[in-house]
Design brief:
Order of helices and strands: HHHH
Strand content: under 5%
Mean pLDDT: 80
Largest sheet: none
Helix content: 40-55%
Low-confidence stretches: none
Structural class: mainly alpha
Distance between the termini: 41 Å
Number of helices: 4
Shape: elongated
Length: 93
């Protein structure tokens, strides 16, 4: 489901003129990075005892496929499966 734009965001988009769009296009064509204001949301919800940290791991194709299959079967994300498996492993040791 796509995020619906709020009325104020729609108003801001509608205020763009052809001149604004032409200026942005010229900046992009010349290699300049146009000053675009990015509105950030509140971020991801906290997990556990504090802010979560992302780490990268390498998985062989069979293990990656097994994680994806388990996630789909349980209706959760791949990350949820990995976190759950890691918690169980650490609790058992």
């Amino acid at each position: 489901m796509k995020k619906q734009l709020r009325d104020e965001e729609l108003d801001r988009i509608a205020e763009r003129t052809e001149e604004d769009l032409d200026r942005l296009a010229e900046q992009l064509d010349s290699g300049e990075s146009p000053a675009v204001r990015v509105r950030r949301g509140p971020g991801r919800p906290p997990m556990g005892s504090g802010p979560a940290e992302a780490i990268r791991v390498r998985l062989d194709p069979d293990l990656r496929r097994a994680v994806a299959e388990r996630a789909q079967a349980q209706g959760v994300t791949d990350s949820d499966v990995v976190r759950s498996a890691l918690r169980r492993y650490l609790e058992a040791s």
